Write the structure tokens for this entry.
Amino acid sequence: KPTVVVLAALLVDNERKFVRHVNQTILRPAHRVGAKVLVGGARMKSKLGGRLKADIVSESMRDIEAVVHSHRKDP
């Protein structure tokens, strides 16, 4: 089971479609298996942060790496 689902959005052509896809298609199955959804990309938080229901919205690769490393399951 995944613990983190990371979506790195370099370019979003249709913001409305992207938000709907994340909120309705990706979020529910990820939460069902106990994973957090992290969306990252340039100006993502300022442009879409209020509309995205993702657990974490970030503009910084350092933030994304920190979250991924904190959720890593090492054997």
